[in-house]
Amino acid sequence: PDIVHIRIASPSLKMAATMRMSASATRAPVSCVARRTQVRAEAAGMPTADDGYRTLMNAEAKLKLPLELEDGPLPLNTYTNKKPFTGEVVSCERIVGPKATGETCNIVIKHDGDMPYWEGQSYGVIPPGENPKKPGKPNTVRLYSIASSRYGDFFDGKTATLCVRRATYWCPELGAEDPAKKGICSNFLCDATPGTKITMTGPTGKVMLLPEGSEDKTHIMVATGTGIAPFRSYLKRMFKEQSIGLSSKWQFPGKAWLFMGVANSDALLYDDEFQEYLEKYPDQFQYDLALSREQKNKDGGKMYIQNKVEEYADEVFDILFNQGGHIYFCGLRGMMPGIQDMLEGVAKKKGMEWEPLLKQLKSNNQWHVEVY
Q1: d(CA 52, CA 57)
Q2: Which entry of 91, 122, 145, 265 is annotated as an active-site residue?
Q3: Is 370 a catalytic residue?
Q4: Is 144 labeled as catalytic in the residue annotation?
Q5: Residue 84: which of 20, 142, 162 has the closest Cα?
Q6: What is the rounded CA–CA span in Å between residue 224 and residue 234?
Q7: Tens-digit pLDDT profile for residues 216-269
């Protein structure tokens, strides 16, 4: 379909390093990985880290990227409920500070190259035990967006990383968390220790894949909470891995713009990685935060993700409708009405109807949504 062009007052995207807000000073220290994690990793021939994912992320790849992963077809539903895969946990660590609203863990799972995936896909996890609603039946599969690139956080194509928030329920009558209503799968994963076996399905999903041929475009990513997972995988590919061999197979001359929404600084996820990209690639990466309990929007209310995106409404419209850029949403379903209402309001100010514009974005594969 033809692209509708919209005249914008200031079309340039300011890719300067804005919002250099790091929560590192207020975070609780990340716990050390147990010695047995190292023993297992050594036995598997993997690089090891003695204080978890932060050391791992700061280390350059010790192994050459297995670039053959660029050549294969899209992996899709390789494993199913009837024929699942068994992965093994390498490490599981809390990655938020003490004042975060809830606990979020970074979980690295070893698949030895037998369960490849692409950035933007999800794994299914089947927690052990019976389905409480169907006695005698196994628990149902839960989908989790993969938070690492296809090469994994060891850069050898043998692991995948999940970003999981522990689901709990506060009972006002008990005045405490009710263990009977906690999330079965998220608690299983967040309680996992090195060596824990994980029953898995997938990989699944095409909606959040980086479109082929879009490498020179601007990619706008809008995340709330653990919805950051696919965007972390994109950014690893776009930036980190370019310097360790990927550029010989896949290059990224385009731009990436990340909007991240969480409650406070302690709840930020992978912030130190994104700050590194800001410093190294200021002309290609922009990073904006919406901290609902620490920032105010233009009307004096809490700063939610849609409020932060609205601050750049003209630029976002220009990127989408004049430059052929892409926009991705991942996180809680509740963010979408606010986002759509905001964009509809901007369209009206420009004398345009939002629904035909949205239809255009979808038909051009520029609009990507994965919410839960």
Answers
A1: 9
A2: 145
A3: yes
A4: yes
A5: 142
A6: 16
A7: 999 999 999 999 999 999 999 999 999 999 999 999 999 999 999 999 999 999
Residue range 29-86, pLDDT digits in tens? 333 333 333 434 444 445 444 445 555 555 554 568 999 999 999 999 999 999 999 9
Q: Could you tell me the two tokens for 31?
A: 């716990």
Q: Please report, for residues 167, 225, 294, 336, the alpha-carbon distance to residue 291 in angstroms, rounded to integers and kept in the order given.
A: 21, 11, 5, 17
Residue in 32, 177, 363, 372 annotated catalytic:
372
Active site residue 330: yes
Which of 92, 105, 190, 330 is labelled catalytic? Answer: 330
Which one of the listed residues 53, 123, 144, 312 is annotated catalytic? Answer: 144
- Answer whether 0.85 is exceeded by the pTM: no
Assign 173 a pLDDT band (cuts: 50, 70, 90): low
Tell me the torsion sign for CA atoms 142, 144, 150, 153.
Answer: negative
Q: Give the containing element (helix H, strand E) for 288.
A: strand 285-291
